[in-house]
Amino acid sequence: MSEHPPVRDWTTDFDHTDEAWAADPFPIWDELRRTCPVAHSDRYGGTWLPTRHEDVAAIAYDTENFTSRSVVVTNYRPPNIAPRGIAPPISSDPPFHAGARRILLPLMSPQVIAKWEPSTREYCESLVDDLRGRDVIDAAQEYAQHIPVRVIARLLGFPEDDADLFRGFVHHVLEQVTLPLEQRFLGMQDLFEYLRAQVQDHIQNPRDDLTTAMLNAEMDGEPVGMEHVGGTVALLLLAGIDTTWSAIGASIWHLAGNPGDRERLLAEPELLPTAIEEFLRAYAPVTMARLVKHDMDWNGCPMKADDWILLSFPSANRDPAFFENADEVILDRQDNRHAAFGLGIHRCAGSHLARMELRVALEVFLDAFPVFHLEDPSAVRWSGGQVRGPRALPLRIG
Amino acid sequence: MRISIDLERCEGHGRCYSLAPALVEPDDIGNGCVVGDGNVPPDQMDNARQAEANCPERAVILEEQD
User: Fold this and answer.
1) Which domain holds residue B22?
2) CB-CB neighbors (< 8 A) of B54 in chain A
3) I want to staple B20 with a disulfide (CB 3.0 to 4.6 A). Which of A209, A266, A267, B47 is the partner?
4) B33 interfaces chain A, CB cutoff of 8 Å
5) ipTM of the complex
6) pLDDT tens digits along A82-91
7) For chain B, give me the number of helices (H) and strands (E)?
């Protein structure tokens, strides 16, 4: 089970950690949508991959037949910690989910997130200041990745110096999904021990941040409990970092390779919010997952209990049956019901934060470096798995 | 024209109040909330159509009036 040979047939043996998927998944999804719209693979103990918008949406909305008990595809099935799951609310199903989400959403609302914009801008400006005067930079390593780490650390009230540690946790949980169970478990233990210490510190020294707000949160008149607090804090730390890093990096990558689009944004800066939605559609970083609840025939697919569903919002966003010219990046696309932040009750709770970071990061970058190109297109490296974005992005800015 | 939000469908993506801030505002959890009576003045027609055409959940409802 822990071996992952290269994929030879994407219709019967797909693997989202394959190098070909990481490098360029779009032709794979296009082919599947045409020939085998809900593909199956025996890998990870049985996995289904819907690629059409219609099917992805139907599964996202169907909490009767699909559970969010785990949203990261690995070789083992997580224990059923009903009703909350390991990282509420992303791991929770109805009816518990609604209460857990009700606690979190006011802490991540657009009004609250707006307060973080000035410090985010200041931080982005300090990053570009350090890069000025260079000929070549790595926009993924030296710019994009730092922004969400810093912002999330501040939101949670965690030490900003622990950035490397956070990145390590994220890499382990979201990218090293093919490791044996024992190693997966040890990595998770490190994460939860770190979080326990941070939460303990917030109990002793309450302050104005998200961790303290979670400690004060109640459901049905009772405190939510330490496991719930730890799980939600883990979710924010894990889900808020390489997702946004990927979105910022992919947008910069697009502009580096498409000078016409870069020049248009410089000439029409008011277009940026619309363009950002198009970058989110075309390069949606996040693929979610579900587990099948029980054996069933789903639209002709013989699904078994505990089969994985790779819920490909990125592929749904490229479905020509749903979007006109789906494979083209159109900066001023007017009708854009993209699903980059998911659909239904699990809509990304951090979407307002992610959009703010993405907009500020691009504004500051374009202002500092109005002209940039890919230094070596073959040196660009993309992460595979369920969060896809550039991890090496050398740009010539001089 | 009248604009309304189907609260059964709204999940708080926030496209409506970003595109039509004069017509829709966020509530405390980020769901869309119609400002005033929902009547769309002529100079807000385009924004209303944009809000409808960009909602991932199809929760923005536009109705023609006599």
Assistant:
1) 2-63
2) 277, 335-337
3) B47
4) no
5) 0.97
6) 788 989 999 9
7) 2, 4
